[in-house]
Specification:
Blueprint (H helix, E strand, L loop, with lengths): L2 E3 L5 E3 L3 E2 L5 H14 L3 E3 L7 H11 L7 E6 L4 H15 L6 E4 L6 H13 L6 E4 L3 H10 L6 E5 L7 H9 L3 E5 L7 H4 L2 H10 L3 H11 L11 H8 L8 H8 L21
Parallel strand pairs: 3-4, 4-5, 5-6, 6-7, 7-8, 8-9
Antiparallel strand pairs: 1-2
Bound molecules: nicotinamide-adenine-dinucleotide (NAD).
Nicotinamide-adenine-dinucleotide binds next to α10.
Organism: Limosilactobacillus fermentum
InterPro entries: AKR, Aldo/ket_reductase_CS, NAD(P)_OxRdtase_dom_sf, NADP_OxRdtase_dom
GO molecular function, one term: oxidoreductase activity, acting on the CH-OH group of donors, NAD or NADP as acceptor
Length: 273
């Protein structure tokens, strides 16, 4: 496993396990399998209603808590609701702290929401805080009002939507670029792309592995999701090969600067059409 260093000095695995759309009843088993396979970073959210399953799998794994990196996301807006929501998430998951908590998407009162996150960070309930689905203007507003710079911005990114403009902005402020839907939610257009299939054959790996390796070689955190143990293992097993500079350039050229999900629309403001 490779790690990234966050701007507050802590480290995080560059690859983790995504849990969106894994039902609350399936989550404990899926996360237990992920931990057994060697995943040490898990991404959940209040919105997914599966924080309890993540926490239960963590507890039953017997792994030392400090070896794990657990992320959740606030779906509340404003100071009071978010303060309550943080404590509720900790109770749901049965954890003393989260390693990272994000504002899930921009809403009405992001400054109030971030104030609650910063307060919980200072109180030790969160080891780091960040945002998700924030464009440059929205990040700029947070940074103009708080001393604590977000450690990551988790944004839709895959080889067809590489977010190069926002990536550079994030690098300038030492904010790690984290992707959601690194595999384009399983879109056939990615998995059957001739260039990716060609590279998969060349490196004797799968197209999914080539996509994840490309993103991690660009220092982008990835959190692929699968409940198929073969795919889960394959997605983790990407650090024994590396794309050459020429092949990185081939994948870079696939960028269509186009959102596969179309959400949230405020993110299109950062594309360089
Ligand atoms: P993803 O890009 O990880 O793709 C998941 C799909 O790909 C599933 O259908 C899965 O079966 C398939 N797949 C996975 N590995 C495969 C493999 N090796 N071979 C073939 N098929 C494979 O999609 P995602 O779940 O939308 O995104 C990953 C994570 O990002 C989520 O689980 C969640 O934790 C996070 N997320 C965050 C936001 C946000 O707003 N912050 C939004 C969406 C997702």
């Amino acid at each position: 496993m490779e790690n990234v260093r966050l701007n507050n000095g802590i480290t995080a695995p560059i690859l983790g396990f995504g849990t969106y759309q894994i039902s609350p009843s399936q989550t404990k088993a899926a996360v237990a399998e992920a931990l057994k396979l060697g995943y040490r970073s898990i991404d959940t959210a209040q919105y997914y209603r599966n924080e309890a399953g993540v926490g239960a799998a963590v507890k039953e794994s017997g792994l030392p808590r400090e070896e794990l990196f657990i992320t959740t996301k606030a779906m509340t807006t404003g100071y009071r609701a978010t303060k309550l929501g943080i404590d509720n998430s900790l109770t749901e998951a049965g954890l003393d702290y989260f390693d990272l908590m994000l504002i899930h998407w921009p809403m009405q009162d992001d400054l109030g929401t971030y104030r609650a996150l910063e307060e919980a960070y200072q109180a030790g309930k969160l080891r780091s805080i960040g945002v998700s689905n924030f464009n440059r203007a929205q990040l700029g507003e947070i940074m103009a009002n708080f001393q604590t710079v977000p450690v990551v911005d988790q944004i839709e990114t895959c080889v067809l939507r590489q977010q190069t403009k926002l990536h550079q902005y994030l690098a300038d402020y030492q904010i790690v670029h984290e992707t959601w839907s690194p595999l384009g939610e399983g879109a056939g257009r990615l998995f059957n792309h001739p260039v990716l299939k060609d590279l998969a054959a060349k490196y004797d790996h799968t197209t999914a592995q080539v996509m994840l390796r490309y993103l991690t070689q660009r220092q982008i955190m990835v959190i692929p999701r699968s409940t198929n143990p073969t795919h889960m293992a394959a997605n983790l097993n990407i650090f024994y090969f590396a794309l050459t500079a020429a092949d990185l350039a081939r994948v870079q050229a696939l960028d269509e600067k186009f959102s596969l999900s179309g959400w949230p629309s405020s993110m299109t403001l950062d594309e360089d059409y």
